[in-house]
Each structure stands twice: as C-alpha cells, then as structure tokens.
C-alpha cells in the first residue's frame, strides 16, 4: 500500500472522529445536562435542584460561620467545625487542609511578618482545643499539646546525628520568649525556638505529656472537614455547647437538647454514615424560636 | 460494627446489581441489530457500522478519536472566556488546558485547579461531561476488543470501534446516568444553571453560594471512573455528596460498571464460572485493601491522630471515618479518583492502602473496561506462571499463551511501574517534586509517588497537599497520563489481534483450568507479588516509613 492510497483512510478516520466528538458534545454535553435540568424543575426535585435553600438564609447543606466582626465565636450560636474553605466557610472556595498525621513542626513567623509562618496540623489542633476549652469552660488539654496551645514537639540534636547523647534540645513550636513546656530533656535544658533558625538537623520528638487520652473537647471540634463546608457537628460537640447556648439565650438546657435532637440525622438505614447535628438548621431554628434579645 | 455493616450492605448491593447489569451489557454491547437512531448517528458521522476492523484499524480509530477529543477539549478550555455559560471564568493558560484536556480524555481527571474558580457550566457539561462518557466508553471498547480476541478464532476482525463507543455510551452509561442522576437530585444534589449568588447567613454574615449542573455531572463522574469535581472538594462538597445515603449511592456507582463488566465477560466467553472466578479475585483484593485501610484508619497511629483521638482531620461528619475509608478504597480500586475526604490527611498506612489499590494496576475492580483488561492480563500471568510451575501447557480459554503472547502481556505489565517510578524519580531529581510537597518527610514522598501513580494509572485522586499546578508537573503529568493510558492499549490490542488469529486448542488433562480455589489463589498471588515487587521500595520510603517510625 503506497503513501497516497493510505492518505484518504487516515484523513477519513480523523474526520469521522471530529464528527463523533461534535455529535457527542451535542447529545451528552448539552441535551443530557439540559434535559436533566428540565426534569429537575418538577415538584419534589425543584427545591433540591436549586441548592436546598434555607428560609433564614443560605443553604441547609452548606456550613456557615457563626463569628462576630472580630472573628470571635458568637456565644449564642452553636459553633461549627474549623474550616479551610477560604477564610472559613467560603462556599466559593471549598478546600481541605491536606496536612498529614506527622505534621507537627511549625514554621514560626519571623518578627514583623506575621504571614511568613505556617502552622503544623498539630499546633492547629492544640490551639483549637485550647480555644474551645476556654469558650466552654472545660479542660482543653490534649496529648502532644502544650498548655499554651501549640504542639509539644522537641527537636533533639544528638552527637551521633540521629542517635547518641542529646547535646541540645529545642521546643520547636514554642517561639521565644515562650517558656518551654519541659524544663529539661535527657538532662539538657530545653530552649524556646527562634523564628528563622535552622533546626533541620534535630530529631523531631513529639512528647505526649499527661493529658487524658479522651479529651473533653471532641475530635470534630478540633479538626477541619475535607471540603471546609461541613454543616454538621458530632452529637458530642453539640452536647458540649448546649449549656452555653442555653445560658446565652435564657432557655432551659432541656429545650436546647430537644432542638438538637430534632436536627440530628441518624444513620441511614440504621448503618450508613454517622450521627450528625446540622448546625446551620439548628441555629436558624434557635433564632426563630428563641431570638436573642438585643441589649 | 457499623463500619462493617455499612461496607457489607453497600458491597452486597453492588454484587446484587452486577448480575442483571452485566447480562444486559453482554446482550447490547456485542452483536445484535443497530437501532434506527444509531444508524442515523453513524450516517452523520460517516462511519460504516457493519465493517469490522482488525487490531490496527481498531487502535487507529481509538487513537484518532482520543486525539480529536483532546483538541476539542483544549480549545474549549482555552477559549472558555469567549463562550457562553462561562460564569465569568477566563480561558485556562495553555499548559493547564493541555494537562486538563489530557487528564479527562485519558479518564484520569487529575485536576491542577479548583473547579469552582476555573470551570464554568459549559466547560463542565460540554467538556468534562462529554469526555467522562467518552473516556469510560473507550476503556470498554479496548476491553471488548480483547475479549473478542479471546473468543474468536481464525480471524483478524475485532469489532468496530465506533459501534462499541456509541453503544456503550447510549445503551449503558446514559440510561444509568439519567436514573441515578434523578435519585441524587432528589437526595439534595443541585442541578441548575445559576451562577454565584451572595446570601445573608443565619448570623448575618455574607456567603457566596454556587450553582451548577452538579446532578447531571455526579453520576457520570462516578460511573465513568472519572472522579473530577465540579468543586475543588469533589465528593466531600455537600453539594456533590449531601448525605450518608448519597455517599452509599456514589460508592455503588463507582463499583457498578467495572463489576458488572466482569459478568459481561463471563457471558461473552460463555463461562459464567470464569466471571465468578475473576469476581472472587477482585473480592479478595478489595477485601484486603479495605481491611488494611479500615484497620489503619481506626488505629490511632500518628502523632496528630493521637492528639485528636482519631483520624478525623479531613473527614466529613456525615460520612464518618468508615464511610470515608470505604469511599477511598472504592475510588482508588475502581480508577475513579473521586474523594469524599482529604486523602492527604489519612493515616500513613490508610493512605498507603489507597496508593496500593492504584499500584495493583486498578484491578479491584478497576476502571470501566480497563479493570477487566488489567485483570485478564493478571490472569494470563498467573496461567503462564502456573503452567510452567506444574509443567502444563500455558493456555487460557483454549488459546495458547506462548512466548509471543507473553511478550505483549509483560510489556503491558511493565508500562505503569516504569512510568510511575521513572516520573517520580525525575521529579525528585530535578527538584520540582520536593518543592511541590505539602508535607515534610516521608509523607511528602508519599504525596509525590501518589501523584504520579494516580496520573499514570488514570485514577485522578490526589493527596491534594501536593501542588501539581506548576509548568513542570502539568507537562510531565500530561506525558505520564498519555503513556499510562495508551501504551498499554497498544500492547493489548496487538495481543487481541494475535489471539484472534489462533485456532483454539483442544482441552486435555494437561490443561491448567483457570478456575477453582487454587487458581483464585494463584491469580491473586500473581497480582499482589507483581505489584509488591515493583513498588515495595517506594512504599517503604513513603507510607511504611511514616507509619513505622
């Protein structure tokens, strides 16, 4: 077969391919999604198709933040989980933190440049736990956390590199002039960390400390969700917040608990997923039934 | 307890549905009359549906279609700003557009961008949507050609690519998408053409909510093995996956077609026993991955995990840790690449289980079509090794698996490991790898190896702390995806062509039967050992080092 007689089949094949692409674009790229959009207008689907709007504002499915203008939690509302979507619950920027289970060492911000640092996941967890503990008046301590709410992580310099005698010990997540969470380690005085210093030769050694294995602040209160838009919290976190919300709104705790129960979704078919309290709907219901009296 | 009940229930539904769907696919995909509407389509496209192709022409048609699809998608992305329904998004820069076009044509759908800030409705519907249907169908086409090679005798004809493509899309994927799409919309997935709108929140703040054709995208994203999200968070976004029910449905959708296609295979070769054998292999591999993943995710290893009291970081409350782990194993095992959690924040060994699911070659149950042909290749290796071990003639379905056939099988099996390890090594050596890592130490290496494993194996899931949005990674990943998807197909179709020309042998007592407990163990072992030999060093430096140190 010579070159010339092959050409037409070569071209023909690609022409057919282009036509198939065009036909598919029309049928499954336009007719299918537009048809589905039309079907979605029927009653029973319409509300969901338009994003499950909530009368009080927003969507039942998308988490919201309940912070005041200064970024502090508004105490009369149930607080959602931490969020990595934008600056927090930015529904146009869903995102996860993507830090792994051994993300323990902070990059401490250099003086004058507060944005130059990067918190490790451990410090984020410790800081959140401390803040939630203070808000709810419970013990916010956790394993591997210092009492000032950062990771309890030592950088240990050893004379043999990774083995041998400790020669110098730095508390990596505690920026000077903080007082290290341990006075000494293996007989060596622990230093605070100087921002910008190079501790990469030190062996990273997290210290568990004596915090209880089951902290008072629930796990979902100190961890961000995968999309940053999780509208739910665990029943445990709702229980922790109930006294505060009841107090702030002048309600009985039993009444708040009843509402929490109403907005708790059970496991699907008894086995699917987890129990979850929808904070957005719960807070909207609280506002509807027991509005906070403006002082 | 709930974790295992949930997994059992979901997997039971998949196994239950795979029988009727697999039988239906066997009826409509191979042979039988054309429908009138299909004839019209073939006419418009200028193809003759009744002329079958040999392996070369089948491959040429497949490649021509893929090439034209890349061109069309590339044009759509770069010109987005000038087209309607762009919802205010500009065109992509060319390197990103090239990467994304290749990514969706190869059924990978790795995204080096956040959906909500980059792609408008038209790009989702007419771009990603079309290629999700098409790339899934291309995988099925390649598998059908291989199956015909095994079934047919003394011929060089392997079917007609265009017919296989159109039938897969319109007889299988579209009807399933419509049905499951309506169910998902009813359960809360939005389906509209609205743009971003700002609302006042309950506490009096402002929030910008997005709309989009999510309900029509979701089923095809999951069934096709595609997995890319309309939104950055993909199936962790409450609009893409609003409840535990939708989560269960999405897992079923990911596993459904690849599992059913094993049944289809059994029907086409006339041996349902063979399809149950393969399903047993798939079940064991999937069960292993799920068991390792679930145990690792529920054991509190890892400093942060212990501080938190569980593997909660990066999981959604409504799914829980078991619902996220099952989704992850299903997504990486089925070449889907969707995510309902941050895989980067999984425990070290849990993340390692996801990585291993891809490194196995995505055969548990694998992508649409690609899962089956990967599985058949693993079976051929088992037949060959088993045959040599006991001194029997290596044959499979009465076709000799001799040296020329094994050459193609081995070449097929070598493409993914060499490309994955080669690209990872290149990225590390040139410094573009380490600078893109989002986590320090072994976890960073896991992210990098995960990225290239996902790209080469057409998965698309990510440990998203890894920043792939650089020129270097956009281009290297595009190359990795093209090699990982099409080079194995070349060997596969060549193998199919060779097998089709063979006269079937006679079954004798000396023939190793590809069934029974022994064979299941042999095939499972072959798949595991092959993957372990290739990837154990990389796994020990990444997830194993992180988990054990």
UniProtKB/TrEMBL annotation, chain A:
GO terms of molecular function: ATP binding; P-type potassium transmembrane transporter activity
Q: How does it sit in the membrane?
A: Single-pass membrane protein
The protein's matches in Pfam families, at most eight in alphabetical order, are given as: KdpC (PF02669)
Compartments, as annotated in UniProt: Cell membrane
Query: Keyword ATP-binding on this protein?
Result: yes
Q: Which keywords fit this entry according to its UniProt record?
A: ATP-binding, Cell membrane, Ion transport, Membrane, Nucleotide-binding, Potassium, Potassium transport, Transmembrane, Transmembrane helix, Transport
Question: Per the record, GO CC terms?
Answer: plasma membrane
Quaternary structure note: The system is composed of three essential subunits: KdpA, KdpB and KdpC.
State the family it belongs to. Belongs to the KdpC family.
Q: What is this protein called?
A: Potassium-transporting ATPase KdpC subunit
- What is the organism of origin for this protein? Streptomyces brasiliensis
Q: What is this organism's lineage?
A: Bacteria, Bacillati, Actinomycetota, Actinomycetes, Kitasatosporales
- The protein's gene is named kdpC
TrEMBL record, chain B:
**A cellular-component GO term for this protein:** plasma membrane
Main location, first listed in the record:
membrane
Topology relative to the lipid bilayer, per the entry, is: Multi-pass membrane protein
Q: Keyword set for this entry?
A: Cell membrane, Ion transport, Membrane, Potassium, Potassium transport, Transmembrane, Transmembrane helix, Transport
Output the Gene Ontology terms for molecular function: P-type potassium transmembrane transporter activity; potassium ion binding
Give TM regions.
58-79, 122-147, 168-189, 244-264, 276-296, 372-390, 410-430, 475-496, 517-539
Where is this gene product found?
Answer: Cell membrane
Instruction: Describe the family membership recorded for this protein in Swiss-Prot or TrEMBL.
Output: Belongs to the KdpA family.
Quaternary structure (record)? The system is composed of three essential subunits: KdpA, KdpB and KdpC.
Give the protein's biological function: Part of the high-affinity ATP-driven potassium transport (or Kdp) system, which catalyzes the hydrolysis of ATP coupled with the electrogenic transport of potassium into the cytoplasm. This subunit binds the extracellular potassium ions and delivers the ions to the membrane domain of KdpB through an intramembrane tunnel.
NCBIfam families (alphabetical): kdpA
Q: Kindly provide the name given to this protein in its UniProt entry.
A: Potassium-transporting ATPase potassium-binding subunit
Q: Which organism is it from?
A: Streptomyces brasiliensis
Its taxonomic placement starts with:
Bacteria, Bacillati, Actinomycetota, Actinomycetes, Kitasatosporales
């Amino acid at each position: 077969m010579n070159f010339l007689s092959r050409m037409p089949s070569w071209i023909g094949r690609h022409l057919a391919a282009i036509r198939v692409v065009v036909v598919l674009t029309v049928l499954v790229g336009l007719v299918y999604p537009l048809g589905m959009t039309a079907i979605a207008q029927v009653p029973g689907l319409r509300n969901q198709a338009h994003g499950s709007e909530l009368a009080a504002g927003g969507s039942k499915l998308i988490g919201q933040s309940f912070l005041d203008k200064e970024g502090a939690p508004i105490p009369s509302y149930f607080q959602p989980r931490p969020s990595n979507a934008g600056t927090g619950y930015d529904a146009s920027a869903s995102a996860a933190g993507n830090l792994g289970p051994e993300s323990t060492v902070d990059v401490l911000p250099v003086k004058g440049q507060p944005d130059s640092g990067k918190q490790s996941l451990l410090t984020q967890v410790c800081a959140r736990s401390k803040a939630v503990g203070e808000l709810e008046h419970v013990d916010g301590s956790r394993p591997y956390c210092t009492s000032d709410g950062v990771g309890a992580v030592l950088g240990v310099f050893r004379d043999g590199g990774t083995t041998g005698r400790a020669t110098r010990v730095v508390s990596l997540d505690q920026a000077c002039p903080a007082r290290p969470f341990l006075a000494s380690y293996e007989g060596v005085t622990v230093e605070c960390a100087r921002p910008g210093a190079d501790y990469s030769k030190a062996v990273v050694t997290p210290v568990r400390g004596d915090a209880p294995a089951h902290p008072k602040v629930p796990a979902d209160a100190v961890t961000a969700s995968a999309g940053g838009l999780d509208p739910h919290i665990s029943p445990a976190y709702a229980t922790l917040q109930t006294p505060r919300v009841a107090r702030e709104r002048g309600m009985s705790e039993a009444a708040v608990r009843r509402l929490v129960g109403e907005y708790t979704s059970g496991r699907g078919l008894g086995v699917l997923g987890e129990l979850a309290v929808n904070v957005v709907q719960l807070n909207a219901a609280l506002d509807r039934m027991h509005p906070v009296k403006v002082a | 307890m709930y974790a295992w009940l949930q997994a059992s229930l979901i997997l039971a539904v998949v196994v239950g549905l795979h029988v009727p769907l697999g039988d239906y696919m066997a009826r409509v995909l191979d042979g039988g009359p054309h429908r009138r509407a299909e004839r019209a389509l073939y006419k418009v496209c200028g193809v003759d549906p009744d002329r079958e192709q040999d392996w070369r022409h089948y491959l040429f048609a497949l490649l021509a279609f893929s090439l034209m699809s890349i061109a069309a998608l590339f044009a759509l992305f770069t010109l987005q700003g000038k087209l309607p329904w762009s919802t205010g998004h500009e065109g992509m820069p060319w390197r990103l557009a090239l990467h994304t076009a290749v990514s969706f044509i190869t059924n990978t759908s790795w995204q080096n961008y956040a959906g909500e800030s980059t792609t408008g409705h038209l790009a989702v519907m007419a771009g990603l949507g079309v290629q999700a249907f098409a790339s899934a169908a291309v995988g099925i086409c390649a598998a059908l050609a291989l199956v015909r090679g095994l079934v047919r005798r003394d011929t060089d004809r392997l079917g007609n690519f265009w017919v296989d493509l159109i039938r897969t899309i319109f007889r299988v994927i579209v009807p399933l998408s419509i049905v499951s799409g309506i169910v998902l919309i009813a359960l809360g997935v939005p389906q509209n053409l609205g743009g971003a709108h700002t609302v006042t929140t309950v506490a009096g703040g402002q929030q910008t909510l997005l709309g989009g054709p999510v309900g029509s995208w979701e089923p095809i994203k999951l069934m096709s093995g595609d997995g890319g999200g309309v939104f950055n968070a993909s199936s962790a976004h409450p609009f893409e996956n609003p409840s535990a029910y939708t989560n269960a449905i999405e897992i079923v959708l990911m596993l459904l077609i690849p599992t059913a296609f094993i049944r289809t295979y059994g029907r086409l070769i006339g041996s349902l026993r063979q399809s149950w054998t393969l399903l047993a292999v798939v079940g064991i591999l999937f069960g292993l991955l799920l068991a390792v993943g679930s145990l690792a995710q529920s054991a509190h290893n890892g400093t942060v995990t212990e501080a938190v009291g569980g593997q909660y970081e990066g999981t959604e409350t409504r799914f829980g840790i078991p619902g996220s782990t099952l989704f992850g194993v299903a997504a990486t095992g089925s070449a889907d690449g969707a995510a309902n959690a941050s895989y980067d924040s999984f425990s070290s060994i849990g993340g390692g289980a996801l990585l291993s699911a891809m490194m196995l070659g995505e055969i548990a149950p694998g992508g649409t079509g690609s899962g089956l042909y990967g599985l058949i290749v693993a079976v051929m290796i088992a037949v060959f090794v088993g045959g040599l071990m006991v001194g029997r003639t290596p044959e499979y379905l009465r076709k000799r698996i001799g040296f020329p056939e094994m050459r193609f099988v081995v070449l097929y099996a070598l493409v993914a490991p060499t490309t994955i390890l080669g690209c990872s090594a290149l990225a590390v050596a040139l410094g573009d790898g380490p600078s893109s890592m989002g986590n320090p130490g072994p976890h960073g290496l896991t992210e990098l190896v995960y990225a290239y494993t996902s790209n080469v194996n057409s998965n698309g899931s990510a440990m998203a702390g890894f920043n792939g949005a650089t020129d270097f990674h956009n281009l290297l990943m595009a190359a990795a995806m093209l090699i990982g998807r099409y080079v194995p197909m070349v060997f596969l179709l060549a193998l199919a062509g060779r097998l089709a020309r063979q006269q079937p042998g006679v079954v004798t007592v000396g023939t190793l039967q590809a069934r029974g407990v022994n064979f299941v163990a042999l095939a499972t072992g072959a798949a595991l050992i092959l993957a372990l030999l290739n990837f154990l060093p990389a796994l020990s430096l990444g997830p194993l080092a992180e988990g054990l140190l």
